[in-house]
Amino acid sequence: LIARISVTLAVFASSPARAYDADVQMQQSIAIVGAIVQLVRAQIASLGAPDVRAADAQISFVVDDTPIPNAFEQNGVIHISNSLHVMFLYVADAGVENAAHQTFGACGDAYGTYLTTVVSQNKVRVVKGLPLQAVKPPEEFIALSQPLCAGFEKAFPVSAELRKWRDQRVIDMIGFVYLHELAHFALHHTGVTDAAIHAALGGIQTPQALSELARSRDQEFAADAWALRQYIRMFGPEPNLMYYDLQKTMTIMGNSFDCTHDVNSTHPTGIERYAALTSVYRDEFKRKIGYDVSPQESDLLNDWVKFSKHARDGLHCESAAPVPAMTDPHDYGNCYAEHRCFASPAPFKPLAGTKGPGK
Ligand SMILES: [Zn+2]
Fold first, then answer.
1. Can you give the pTM of this predicted structure?
2. Distance CA 335, CA 338 (A)
């Protein structure tokens, strides 16, 4: 839990709960991301291990206004996009509502699947130079996703009381992302060449490009582990981050359920990344708190990974007819009943006409 400071609160206070305005929100986001990172860096300076402080002292930070949620480190400069912040706001909106009302689960899971789909499709659209799809905030998604989301029409924008917790969760997520990018710098990671990126996008896959991509994926695992380790050592194990926000974020950002995602990518899938983080979390929890993660919490970590792998296998990405992507919120109206909401706790069933997992 990264402690809030007044400068951050002052920025948040300027965004009262009201009808959603995409342009205004994106503009405010630029200032908010800057304020949050300033806060995170101040806490690194006071709480960070010597090597973390030393790395951060050499880093510059800029808010990126690229339209797809993104963060990267290049030549000692960390970039985090304001659109990533907006996506985190939506993830955290759903997270606090989920914690406040258990019945929000199915609707919230469908919203997570929707975010995953839009983000992965926008990545393809960027490559092809097509206009991006706007990401709908929860209230707009809910209005369209009936009857699944019935009863939650007035739950968003979230109440002032919930907004406090929502904002805290956004700070923690941006903090993790910042530490991940700082890790690339601190661990002297190398970027990938254009040839490797081209190979990852389906171009010519030379042995050299493939080995570069494999190294890049290893570096992503290493940066995730470093970031979570440093986060917990500085701020303690934060359950909301580990048990909800990171799961959702990794799924959304990690092409977890995207059949066009090449296995020879620059990044591992979100499921693989989250699975790797569970062991870091267990180790660091014990180091910080002095005893093991409870069996119940341990089951939660395992269950999500198992369920996600199961769901991923159910997609059968190798089949000639890929699973149609769902971008229209109307598609989610009855996905729970049909077991199409991948992140839902319902037992996963393979889609009709495909071979099921384990066969
Ligand atoms: Zn990375």
1. 0.84
2. 5
